[in-house]
Amino acid sequence: MDKLFGLPIESVFSVIIFLLAGGLTLTGIMALRNRVLFKIGVRNIARRPAQTVLIILGLMLATLLVSATLVTGDTIKYSIQKTALEGLGEVDVIIKAENGRSNDTAGVGAILGTTAPRLNPDDLLRVESALKDRPVDGTTIIVRENIPATSPKSRRNLPGLEFLGVRADYTATLGDLKTASGNSLPVGALALDQAYLSAEAAKKLDVGTDDVITLFAQNVPVETKIAGIFAKGGKPSTGPTIIVPLARAQEMFSLGDEFSAILISGKGDGIEGASKTKVVMSALRPLFKDTPFVVDAVKNKALDNAEEQASMISSLFLVFGQFSMAAGIMLISLIFVMLAAERKVELGVLRAIGAKKGALVKIFLFEGAIYATLSAAVGVVLGVAVGWGMVQVIGAIFGQADFSPTFSFQPRSILLAYGIGLIATFAVVIFAARRAGRVNIVRAIRDLPEPVKTSRGYKSLIFLGLTLAAGVFSAMGGVSEQQQGSFLLGLSLIVIAIPLLSRWVRLPDRIAFTAAGLGLLALWLLPDGTLSSVIPDYDQYSAGMELFFLSGMAIVTGAVWTVMYNSDLLLKLVTTVFGRLKGFPPMLRIAVNYPLKARVPTGLTLAMLSLVVFTIVFMSILLNSMGAVFSDTAKLSGGYDIQGIVSPANPVGSVKQVLEEGSTDLRYEDFAAVGSLSITPIVTRQHEAKKSSWTNYAVVGVDAGYAKNVEYDFLLRSPEYATDREVWKALIEEDNVAIVHPSLVPAKVSFTAGQPTPPFQMSGFYRDGGELPRTYIEAKDPVTGEIGKLRIIGVLDDSAYTLFGSIITSHEKVGEIVGAPVAPSQYWFKTAPGQSAADAAEDLSETFYKNGLETVLVQEDIAKDMSSSLMFNRLLEGFMGLGLLVGIAAMGVIAARSIVERRRVIGMLRAIGFKSGLVQRTFFLESSFIASLGITLGSVLALVLCRNVIATMANDMPGLTYQVPWVEVALIAGIAYMASLAATYLPARQASKIMPAEALRYE
Amino acid sequence: MNALAQARRETIPQPQGAETIISTEELTKTYHTGEVEVHALRGVDLQVARGEMVAIMGPSGCGKSTLLNCLSGIDRPTAGNVIVEGQDIYKLRDGVRTDFRAKRMGFIFQFFNLLPVLSAVENVEMPLLIAGVASGKARKRALAELEMLGLASQARKHPLEMSGGQQQRIAIARSLVNDPAIVWCDEPTGNLDSETAEEILNILCRLQREKDQTFIIVTHGAEIGERADRIVQMRDGLIQSEARRDING
């Protein structure tokens, strides 16, 4: 990971280590200088081991979440790096023809085929000479193509086989090829008509050693004998691969002594070799300046890519975990508020016998520091365990996609998680210690309740004044930068500060906090479009995932304030509804009155519980609503049933003709639609757009058959086209027009996180802006430099799943740009009514056997993708669910605290007739009341906010509707409720066992 | 003669014809604090007649609060038995004994022990609600009790908004609202100034006379002793002496 909380991780790490070292050193010095106070502070830890364990478990939850996130990020990074390194072998740098896929870091897959400019032996000599005295292990050359292959024996096809022609020194440079049993397969031992096949290719073609397969080179079938199957070793590519002698490859593709690429391995293995890249690059770049060739640092790119993907996934967990972390920090506060209350008598006595305030602060600080140190350590260890669990789930989800994560973490991440956890806890300890030091001796010794504070001191006034100023500043910044997040944060601070400041002009607390609470709720729960109708150009304001966090925090704060400051109304309601139930009145009086009168602990607990429930329910509704859109595989497939993939090196020609002449019963009439699609590397940029630079990309060409029948709709159309169908028609019939996938166009309001962003991005308009201005892109042939200008006449909607990230025009236009007709690499078939897609796909494979056509059942394939995506989302939901532990722990803490605080009350109640069972039930009822309130608040807020969010998202995603999974929501609420009660069980039981005389003697 | 025998010899029998409401025999209570044994009661015999006001006095640590706790059924003695209204209360199950307390006993504590989150009237009606009296009826009786103690105007206030004297009067109202046979008072004036203490004492004496209730008062205050029917003087877990007030002056 290179970023954490949006900041460079190195900087975060340095700051954390500095704070950690500084904090620990200072505390250590203080402890040494105040040994007696230190002993008084820490003796409580050993005195009550059970309580210590509970406190540590409660405090460690925030650390656990950070640790789990960082460990998952490390694992993803390591696993992607590992896959990339396996794919590249020892190759660090490749010299190859410049192409549109240099971002493909999978290895030699980025080398253009034989239609591209080729390198010659002179180039190799120049390279070898330049690399003399440089840290290089070896240099070799290869011919690379992507060709179809078939097995006459099994009649299986493989349309995209990585074809590598290599020299005998190949293995010396890149490592041995090895069989599954570990035997070496020397390239020099291959006869001209022999090849080594990768295990994956052998499986797909269902062939083994000594079998003969047919390779198609320039449409000419070439029989090749399999001399061995390699499972590991120096294979510089991913995917199914065949390795033949270089001379054979040059012969098959009529290359003479030319070749596709030069591969260079830096000194040392794997990552070490990549570290030498800079030196190698500096020696080679001048050689290939102003040529059609590039010197590509493939391994460094692969490592960067791994870093980027790991960072993306970690950020995703951080974004969705931040509510739980916020709740975790609230829990830390609650625990220390409780501890301070519990130590009140002891601290009062110490003050009475002469201890100064500073001494009390130190005593509390020492105790808190020990808890913080221990809890952060436990949190880190358990976080690693949770991270391991998440990695197992990710492995199960993506196992089908050939990505199996290997559990791994960096010591830096552990130290970082520990530091963050410890510092967060310690910050709360310092705050709580300062408060604990301000005890009133008499009240503390007699354990009398503190008088209600009005918080109208000058410090509060200054704080609220600053809050107001910050609000105005942030709101104005939001307006000038056109950012919803900054604007709404500013408004929220203003909405909070104004009523609370009004208390200095005698506005009662109740009205002030209620006004602030309701103001926050109104601001954030306004229906979609309300602010647009009031704020000029508001619909041009951008927004991102930060809104999710801000909105959650704001509405939960608003709701909790409103409830806590109007608790008498709630109390009346509850006692009216349940007060008539037999046996309830005495329990109800205590169970409802106590929590509602204890605003701080109850408010914190309510906030934690409702925040956590809010996030889970919100996520659940969002996933359900989006799932409904993405489960419509018929729509996502664009109406096509079968995708046929062929190699452009072995094109089909006329589909109709092949079908008519085919050996199966399949006829052209069995399809309602047939279309073709080509993918051609180009270099592109947006015409006359700021910040748009030439980007290596690919353009998709379609034929009339595809455009006429595809059923994808548009988010935006040029105004001259009345319908979506007219846009598709124009794509074929009009010159120089193109359409784009929405992933290439920015959104004003984007709630997506973790989705890949294509490297080419347009600007100047928004996909959810409602209008498509006159916009052009330029497409340049990377070989000839020929530039074509294309006007964008439509932006597809998100359902165009199979065209993700594409710029789409006609085959003819692509041909004009690259100066030659382009061959389709995909055929799309829509079966006629009554035809089975699966049967048709099988027949197509058979019919197009010679073209190596590989068929994919589109809807089935999309469903598989969606299932992985859904499982990953569920994992995220589960990760957010970890926050529930925080809420549950809070319930346990508040129950335990109530018992300590109300010991004498319990004694009195037992004396005047409360049976022990009634005491237990009363505490259960109290927890039940808080849990129900928190769960209801969280659920209702999620239901309302999600409705608004989905209404906004629907502008960008037609078809998205608000769909509540009621059973799931009920299940979440039920689990949260039962778990909360379970957390109260032990404290309640303990309360019921308090002997009245003992409790009363306590005084 | 040992102290125990001396104490027994000095026990004053209750007046003839009076019904015994509380009686104990060989009441012993030992606390274990770590390895230390504390003998709080060392074999106390006591009889109290219905309607009697008994002041239990003695120095701190003599066992008077422990005696009150054991007599009232909130602390199980180590040995001996406690008969209240003919029931050996420690032979009753905890739930039944608790019910017995709810219906037949009232408690007044030094620090009032009111529920701070409830209003005065809600505090007073709590014993009735525990005893299963309907909410409406309980409220009426609680208000009547407060009226009798001159606190009707304070009924909606919360304890922390009241003076110590007012809080103790609320506690008295709470202890009497279920019309108990016995009222246990542990230092009822210990947390009050002398004027308020006198006022509270007057109330207790008036109630005892009017309702014929039995009051057992643990106290350090000589003025309570002066107004009680009997003073039980304790020392080192034993009744050292008993003295009956001379009603003829």
Give me the Rg of chain B, rounded.
18 Å
Largest β sheet strand count, sense and barrel closure of chain A: 6 strands, mixed, barrel
Strands of chain A, count: 23
Helix-strand category of chain A:
alpha+beta
Report what the structure shows.
By secondary structure, chain A is α+β, with helices and mostly antiparallel strands. In chain A, 56% of the residues lie in helices and 14% in strands. Chain A is built from 34 helices and 23 strands. Chain A has a six-stranded mixed β-barrel. In chain A, strands 15-16-21-18-20-19 form a six-stranded mixed β-barrel. Chain A has a two-stranded antiparallel sheet with strand order 1-2. In chain A, β4 and β5 form a beta hairpin. In chain A, α17 runs parallel beside α20. The longest helix of chain A has 45 residues, at 298-342. The radius of gyration of chain A is 34 Å and the shape is elongated. The two termini of chain A are 56 Å apart. By secondary structure, chain B is α/β, with parallel strands linked by helices. Helices cover 36% and strands 27% of the residues of chain B. Chain B has helices spanning 3-10, 64-72, 94-104, 120-130, 135-148, 164-176, 194-211, 222-227, and strands at residues 20-33, 36-49, 53-57, 79-84, 87-88, 105-108, 182-186, 214-218, 230-235, 238-244. Chain B is globular and about 45 Å long. Chain B starts with a helix and ends in a 5-residue tail after the last strand. The chains are: A alpha+beta (1003), B alpha/beta (249). Chain A binds chain B through residues 446, 449, 451, 579-580, 582-583, 585-586, 589-590, 593-594, 596-597, 904-905, 907-918, 995-998, 1000-1001, 1003, and chain B through 65-66, 69, 72, 74-75, 94-95, 98-99, 101-103, 105-107, 109-111, 113, 115-118, 122, 126-127, 129-132, 135, 138, 160, 174-175, 186.
